[in-house]
Specification:
The complex is a heterodimer of chains A (460) and B (298). Chain A has 460 residues and is of the alpha+beta class. Chain A contains 10 helices and 11 strands. The longest helix of chain A has 62 residues. In chain B, the strands form 3 sheets. Chain B has a two-stranded antiparallel sheet with strand order 1-2. A two-stranded antiparallel sheet of chain B has the order 3-4. Classes of the chains: A alpha+beta (460), B mainly alpha (298).
Chain lengths: 460, 298
């Protein structure tokens, strides 16, 4: 048989539950714009019934721990796309500067000084004994050398800036992994205690999302809400409450910083995220462009020198090298310079007389000869232009498609986890109604009790 | 239960706005530069090809400049040789007059001194310079080629050489630009200066003037044959000049085809994307200021 006090206690429990539910709703509304916030769901459950004699009486409602609504699989897909996005944007930053350096569509680049250099020989061939034309050959050669040097030094400084970026990225990664490890411990202890990870899990997945923009991360469930993070090459980043910091060390052969994890060089296994993009620019893209630039400078200098030495100068003496002989292929572009300053030393003559233009002709004709890796200088250079343009263009279109996928995934995640103010308003109305009803129950029970007490009063 | 949609649409609106503004910027850039390809990555193949059209038009400019310099040089040479022709014709008439047996010794001496004048004139024409360069010295063109020298069999010493300079006047097309003085003036098949010298001697010594005149005529016809080179070369220069000018136009139009912008399309794109941006902005304003249910809780 039920009792008035039972009803009163059920109503009190309901009031508390509805208050709690309103609080959760309020928290959801408060976090409507918080990045990474997953909406929390109110969990109400029916209390275990009380048996009185043969009868079962319900014992009201109680508020259970909230559930944060999130889709971990979706989150991992977002992290995955973040890795590509991070890599592409780290790649495109410096590469956009590289393509500006060689922007032939606006006339900057090596084509103009290169053509001007050969043209100066063509012009000299028209009047080989004119010393002002001889001087302009030297000037054109110096302009060409300066252009090579500037391009090489711009590329090298981009490369060393990117190396600085590598070190900064590694330190950001280390900050993030240590924060994730700390949160990992807290989340695990909450989950073990039967609670919802809630806000802490939100924070952790925000940090993992940031981390995945920096390096290729693989995530594994370690049970009890804990996660294990490794690079996709297998180097541990976070295991339980412990984070493993990456470090950098100068590689003496490249003079750039390699990335180490617990003593092992993992540079080559880092292929995505900002760090992956930076390494790609520093170790592959710029070196490949520099090699081509050096090959061009080296072969050009060597061929011009050989042809110069085959001719005669204005005084009928055997020709001397026009460019300072490059010491090595690797430094050809940065060290190329004109070796002669006396216009008379330009070897325009092919027979030793001052009026002969045969060698100037031959020097001008080098531009049509396959002197650079089996190609003419223009063909070779044009190939380099295509390579740079193509690499940037590919990265651009990948970036666009990754951006679309990211947006799609964010929308999906928003559909799952974002707070909807309409939904919260409906919930609030529901909880308000339930609260009012329970309050009325209390008031009714109160009046029933008053009736009962009044009855007793009348009896006495 | 109905499908839940993402209640937060601000990021989508922003990225759509971003996309439209990018299109707007692209159209503006195309309109302001006149180029559809402004970065290598806009069209890598066109950017690589434009290297060649730039080289071509720059080479054409250089060839045209060479041709213009060369044209005045060859014209100087040609008109010099034309003066030689006039002078030698005069010497031949004088020689024919001198061959007349009825002349007195003093008349012959007078003719001899007139022919000597012609000889000196021819000699100075043979030593003609252009921009400080001797035109008829082969490639040894910084030294005066012809000097009178009585120890030589024909009375003149040639200091030049037999070499010929060639110049590229368009890509892969070169022409010779001089005839060595030895071919023009002291050619073994007809030695112009030598036969002038011989005519002077014959007149002065009352020798065989008739033979000397015949020899001079032979030498003159050899000279005239050699001389044709210059007018041929000038003709070739002029036709190459025409070719280069049209090649330059060709290169420019090719460059335009490669990287030029379709201005009409760019203008249309600009107005389309501007309309899109405006529409999106006003849509964004409406959507973001739409009331939600909470506004109705009173």
């Amino acid at each position: 048989m039920g009792s008035l006090y039972g009803a009163l206690s059920i109503a009190t429990g309901a009031l508390e539950a509805d208050q709690g539910a309103a609080e959760i709703t309020s928290n959801n509304i408060a976090n409507v714009n918080t990045p990474g916030y997953s909406r929390e769901q109110v969990n109400l459950s029916e209390n275990a019934p009380v048996q009185v004699g043969n009868l079962l009486f319900g014992d009201g409602v109680s508020l259970q721990p909230t559930t944060s609504i999130r889709d971990n699989l979706l989150q991992q897909q977002i992290d995955q796309e973040n890795q590509s996005a991070g890599q592409l944007s780290a790649f495109l930053g410096p590469m956009n500067q590289v393509q500006t350096l060689f922007n032939e569509t606006s006339g900057s680049g090596l084509q103009a000084p290169l053509t001007a250099f050969f043209n100066s020989f063509t012009q000299l061939s028209g009047n080989p004994s004119d010393s002002s034309l001889r001087q302009s050959v030297i000037t054109a050669g110096q302009n060409l050398a300066t252009a090579f040097q500037q391009d090489a030094s711009s590329l090298e400084s981009l490369q060393s800036n990117t190396d600085l970026g590598v070190q900064q990225t590694v330190s950001q990664i280390n900050t993030l992994t240590s924060q994730i490890a700390a949160l990992n411990v807290q989340v695990t202890s909450l989950i073990s205690a039967g609670q919802d990870g809630g806000a802490l899990e939100d924070q952790r997945s925000q940090l993992v999302q940031q981390l995945s923009g920096l390096i290729n991360v693989s995530q594994a469930d370690a049970g009890n809400g804990g996660i294990t993070l490794t690079t996709s090459g297998g180097a541990a980043l976070v295991v339980g409450g412990q984070s493993f910091a990456l470090s950098t060390q100068v590689n003496p052969s490249t003079t750039f910083h390699d990335v180490y994890s617990q003593g092992a060089d993992i540079t080559s296994t880092i292929t995505s995220g900002t760090l992956g993009g930076q390494l790609q620019v520093r170790d592959q893209e710029i070196p490949s462009i520099l090699t081509k630039l050096n090959t061009l400078a080296y072969n050009l200098a060597t061929s011009v020198n050989t042809q110069s030495e085959a001719g005669f100068d204005a005084n009928g003496k055997a020709g001397v090298a026009f460019f300072t002989a490059p010491t090595s292929l690797a430094s050809a572009a940065s060290s190329i310079s004109v070796a002669i300053s006396d216009p008379d030393l330009v070897a325009a003559s092919s027979d030793g007389t001052a009026g002969s233009n045969g060698n100037a002709q031959a020097l001008a004709n080098l531009q049509n000869q396959t002197i650079v890796d089996g190609q003419t200088p223009a063909d070779y250079y044009s190939g380099l232009i295509f390579q740079i343009g193509n690499d940037v263009s590919q990265a651009n279109s990948e970036q666009t498609s990754v951006g679309l996928v990211q947006q799609q995934l964010q929308d999906q995640q928003g559909a799952v986890s974002s707070v909807s103010l309409d939904e919260e308003a409906v919930n609030l109305i529901q909880f308000q109604g339930a609260y009012e009803a329970s309050a009325n129950v209390v008031s009714t029970v109160n009046s029933l009790l008053t009736t009962l007490i009044d009855m007793m009063y009348e009896t006495t | 239960m109905s499908i839940r949609v993402d209640p937060n649409i601000a990021p989508d609106l922003l990225s759509a706005l971003n996309l439209d503004q990018q299109q707007q910027n692209t159209a503006l850039e195309q309109l302001s530069t006149g180029q559809a390809v402004n970065q290598l990555s806009d069209n890598p193949a066109a950017a690589a090809d434009v290297v060649f059209t730039h080289i071509e038009s720059s080479q054409d400019d250089q060839y045209l400049q060479n041709i213009s310099d060369l044209t005045s040089q060859l014209q100087t040479a040609d008109s010099t040789l034309s003066s030689v022709t006039t002078a030698v014709n005069q010497a031949i008439s004088l020689g024919v007059e001198g061959a007349n047996g009825n002349l007195t010794a003093s008349d012959q001496q007078a003719i001899a001194s007139q022919v000597t004048g012609v000889l000196n004139q021819v000699l100075s024409l043979a030593n003609q310079t252009y921009n400080g360069v001797y035109l008829f010295a082969g490639t040894n063109s910084t030294t005066q080629p012809f000097v009178l020298d009585s120890t030589q069999p024909d009375g003149v010493l040639y200091n030049g050489n037999d070499a010929v300079n060639s110049i590229d006047i368009s890509n892969g097309n070169s022409i010779a630009i001089n005839v060595p003085g030895s071919q023009l003036f002291t050619n073994p098949s007809g030695d112009l200066i030598g036969s002038l010298n011989a005519l002077v001697t014959a007149l002065q010594t009352n020798g065989d003037v008739g033979t000397a005149v015949t020899n001079l005529q032979t030498a003159f016809s050899e000279f005239s044959t050699q001389r044709v080179f210059y007018s041929n070369a000038l003709q070739q220069l002029s036709s190459t000049q025409t070719f280069l000018n049209s090649d330059k136009t060709q290169a420019a139009s090719q460059e335009n085809a490669l990287i030029g912008a379709d201005m009409a399309a760019a203008a249309t794109n600009l107005s389309q994307s501007t309309t899109a941006v405006n529409a999106l902005l006003s849509a964004t304003n409406q959507i973001l200021s739409t009331l939600n249910l909470l506004d109705y809780l009173r």
